[in-house]
């Protein structure tokens, strides 16, 4: 019983520990309140600010990012809680000074600004813009707490409201701040974060001379990537509050009712929340700007969040030419090479934009070209028409430029060694499609050689199961009987060989001539029967007997009656024809 209880306790502890071992991605993805509040664009870098309910940062390797309709690849370089970075916040505070606001409310709004100024860090900045009948910059970002206090104490309310022109003034300050950072060559990871704050009752008095529309002011905030956080007086009409909230959310900001009783903490609480934001530094493969707005997507686990109204309108200048950093053979495939570029390029997927030489002479044709840009790897895969062999190669390109506003051309060519598959193997492989022709030529040459050789040696005869050249044929002798009459004759053989061949033959009683190997003399002649005819010696004379041959036997042009019982005399010098062979017999 105690043992089982111990196992249950152990399983409980493991499950408990497992709850705290979730990946940051999982924690971030499972948060129900994940929003992208801001994207500060300075291509090729984009600073993305994410608000999470749990205040945890997602691991940089666990987030995937993409921007619609651009084709660029994005790489998350870092992911940190904002307060852990070296960045500062520049608060652009917009204060409504119209007479539609009660005096006590107006005083509370000014005190809330001072409370925020007191709490921000040394690296942070705060400016104040007032809008009423006119729009003015009351205090710049370098004002001290004391200077700001004096300025605010002197501000008086006035009739009229230039609300949207005041909002435009925020974006003018943001652009000025960004231009200053560009001039000082401040890196993206050290740039200030610009945030707008507005304290107002959200009334625009149309007859007060305002010339900027709500749509124009909204677009100016979206184009600069500036979220606007609003604090609306509770005395404002519900319709105005709803309109203000909708406007603020389109900028990435939020809406709150201004509480005079919390004047010392309401803005400082906003500051605390922004310090807890997750900031992602994202690097784009290109610095190309676009006039139209895009959509940024972040994906972590099962969670995907979007930032709409993203404007890629600010970029670092780029005069650096792209280069080929390496050319490698793809595995053992000697027909495919991978060309790696130093940065994202255009037109690298055009097969006609490459020239590949071996030893400065042999040219390879690119039959297929594909290009990929992923995780800061920019590579073209080239499939060649022929296999590579070991040697020194040069890869030259044409019409390939980097993916920037400047479109810098690719710098120089690449030269280096490639292994290929070895010269002999490459030659062997290159002949592959011609092997049938080559084999036919070889067979023809061999047969022609055999034919010429046989012709030179007067054909082939088969004697005693052996093939013998015509000019080297020997007789086979057979003695039928010791008492048989013997006759020595000369056979001049022609027809089976190109030239005539003479054979000295001794007939002991009789000999059989035919195609069968057991004959006394036999020939490899398909027209000759196995046992074609016999020569017999009787009383010193020679006779011939046809042994029922298929094609018959002829003596001096006359056919011989078939049958071993029939004999015809053969005279000295007679001509005997059997199959394709002609004999002239003499003695």
Write a brief caption for the model.
With 587 residues, this protein is α+β, with helices and mostly antiparallel strands. The chain is built from 10 helices and 36 strands. Among the domains are: 89-260, 3-Layer(aba) Sandwich (Rossmann fold); 324-421, Immunoglobulin-like; 460-586, Sandwich (Tumour Suppressor Smad4).
Task: Give an overview of the whole structure.
The structure is a single chain. It is rod-shaped and about 165 Å long. The strands form 9 sheets. Strands 7-6-5-8-9-10 form a 6-stranded mixed beta sheet, with helices on both faces. Among the domains are: 89-260, Rossmann fold; 324-421, Immunoglobulin-like (Sandwich), CATH 2.60.40.1220; 460-586, Tumour Suppressor Smad4, CATH 2.60.200.20. Helix 3 (103-119) packs antiparallel against helix 4 (145-154). 24% of the residues lie in helices and 35% in strands. The chain starts with a helix and ends with a strand. It has 10 helices and 36 strands. Mean pLDDT is 86; it is low at 9-27 and 472-483. By secondary structure, the chain is an alpha+beta fold.
């Amino acid at each position: 019983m105690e043992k089982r209880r111990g196992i249950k306790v152990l399983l409980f502890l493991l499950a408990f520990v497992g709850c705290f071992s979730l990946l940051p991605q999982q924690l971030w993805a499972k948060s129900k309140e994940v929003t992208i509040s801001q994207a500060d664009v300075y291509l090729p870098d984009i600073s993305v600010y994410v608000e999470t309910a749990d205040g945890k940062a997602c691991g940089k390797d666990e987030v995937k990012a993409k921007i619609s309709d651009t084709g660029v690849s994005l790489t998350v370089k870092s992911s940190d809680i904002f307060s852990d970075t070296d960045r500062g916040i520049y608060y652009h505070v917009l204060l409504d000074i119209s007479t539609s606001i009660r005096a006590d409310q107006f005083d509370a709004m000014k005190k809330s600004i001072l409370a925020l100024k007191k709490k921000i860090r040394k690296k942070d900045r705060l400016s104040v813009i007032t809008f009423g009948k006119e729009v003015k910059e009351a205090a710049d970002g370098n004002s001290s707490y004391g200077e700001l206090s004096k300025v605010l104490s002197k501000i008086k309310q006035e009739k009229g409201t230039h609300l949207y022109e005041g909002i435009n003034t925020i974006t003018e300050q943001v652009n000025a701040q960004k231009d200053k950072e560009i001039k000082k060559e401040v890196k993206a990871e050290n740039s200030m974060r610009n945030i707008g704050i507005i304290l107002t009752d959200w009334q625009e008095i149309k007859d007060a001379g305002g010339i900027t529309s709500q749509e124009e002011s909204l677009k100016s905030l979206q184009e600069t990537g500036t979220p606007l956080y609003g604090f609306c007086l509770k005395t404002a009409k519900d319709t105005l509050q709803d309109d203000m909230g909708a406007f603020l959310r389109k900028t990435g900001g939020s809406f709150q009712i201004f509480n005079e009783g919390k004047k010392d903490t309401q803005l400082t609480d906003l500051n605390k929340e922004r310090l807890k934001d997750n900031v992602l530094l994202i690097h784009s493969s290109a610095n190309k700007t676009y006039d139209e707005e895009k959509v940024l997507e972040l994906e972590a686990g099962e969670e995907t969040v979007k930032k709409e109204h993203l404007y890629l309108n600010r970029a670092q200048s780029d005069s650096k030419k792209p280069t080929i950093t390496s050319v490698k053979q793809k595995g053992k495939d000697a027909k495919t090479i991978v060309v790696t570029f130093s940065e994202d390029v255009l037109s690298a997927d055009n097969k006609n934009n490459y020239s590949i030489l071996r030893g400065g002479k042999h040219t390879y044709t690119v039959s297929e070209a594909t290009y990929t840009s992923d995780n800061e790897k920019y590579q073209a895969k080239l499939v060649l028409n022929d296999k590579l062999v070991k040697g020194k190669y040069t890869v030259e390109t044409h019409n390939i430029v980097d993916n920037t506003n400047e479109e810098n051309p690719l710098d120089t060519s690449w030269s280096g060694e490639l292994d290929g598959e070895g010269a002999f193997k490459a030659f062997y492989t290159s002949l592959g499609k011609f092997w049938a022709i080559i084999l036919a030529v070889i067979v023809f040459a061999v047969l022609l050689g055999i034919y010429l050789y046989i012709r030179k040696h007067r054909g082939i005869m088969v004697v005693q199961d052996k093939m013998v050249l015509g000019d080297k044929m020997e007789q086979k002798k057979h003695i039928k009987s010791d008492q048989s009459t013997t006759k020595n004759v000369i056979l001049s053989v022609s027809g089976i060989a190109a030239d005539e061949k003479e054979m000295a033959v001794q007939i002991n009683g009789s000999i059989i001539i035919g195609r069968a190997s057991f004959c006394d003399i036999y020939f490899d002649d398909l027209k000759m029967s196995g046992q074609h005819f016999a020569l017999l010696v009787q009383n010193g004379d020679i006779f011939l007997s046809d042994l029922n041959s298929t094609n018959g036997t002829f003596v001096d042009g006359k056919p011989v009656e078939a049958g071993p019982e029939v004999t015809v005399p053969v005279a000295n010098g007679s001509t005997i024809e059997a199959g394709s062979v002609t004999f002239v017999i003499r003695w």
